[in-house]
Amino acid sequence: MSPAVDPTPVPVTDPNPDPHRVPVTELERIAALGWRGTTVERLGGWLLRAGSGFTGRANSVLPLGDPGLALPAAIAHAERFYARHGLPVAVQQPDAGPGTAAADLAAELDRRGWSTSDPVLVLVAPLAQVLDRSPAADVLPPAALAARPDAAWLSGYLYRGAPLPPTAVDVLLAADRPVFASLVLDGSLAGVARAVVDEGWLGITALTVDPGHRRRGLGCHLVGELARWGAAQSARSVYLQVDGGNAAALALYDRLGFRRHHEYRYRRPPG
């Protein structure tokens, strides 16, 4: 069973919000709705997430505010949580302004010698702009959309270049009504992607194009298909995460109008 991270929606007062002006912690809270651990525990303003080790986002602490404990006690609590789940403790650390709870945590982890991963970029765009830049292609078929990933979809999604572990399905389904897009060309699976809509935001994840079908505009087509689905679900803005070193993906998203909102890094204890 996948617990809701925060079931209380935030009222939308601006019908055309600027996605770049949303605070970092607010966007991270919304993104956490769309990609959860299979177990989620709250510690004050922290989310402790465990998902059998599949993906960093589903298996790390997300600090969205004050944990309600002194930092040494809060970190010890997180260590016990991950030990119970047979996982190493990790923290997903978004950009933090000076004087914030996140900045205090970052300083404490620095003092303890925790390592810092390469950055993951969080990109955003107005949905209307993405729709304008990814119109339906006459030469490409529409993507098939499903509420669950079938065996073909799972074989088409390579996480960091590797096949998925059996536990991945539980994490992929741990959201409110996710949709799984598959694109078939010439009788073979050419690409897959996953999407969710939470509080007016379309979140696109797991976008993968088969190496034999690249450089044919399929990534843009899949994003457009999910954008059209998101518009039908009343989404107004789009977010996605991408490795800071993935030049090809960054070039695609730049063409579609995505811009950097913030970045995050994973922090892990020495050894």
Automatic annotation (TrEMBL):
Gene3D superfamilies: 3.40.630.30
Positions with biased composition (Pro residues): 1-16
UniProt organism field: Nakamurella endophytica
MF (Gene Ontology): acyltransferase activity, transferring groups other than amino-acyl groups
Name the UniProt record assigns to this protein: N-acetyltransferase domain-containing protein
The N-acetyltransferase domain, residue ranges: 138-271
One Pfam family this sequence matches: Rv0428c_C
Region feature Disordered, mapped onto this chain: 1-22
Superkingdom of origin organism: Bacteria
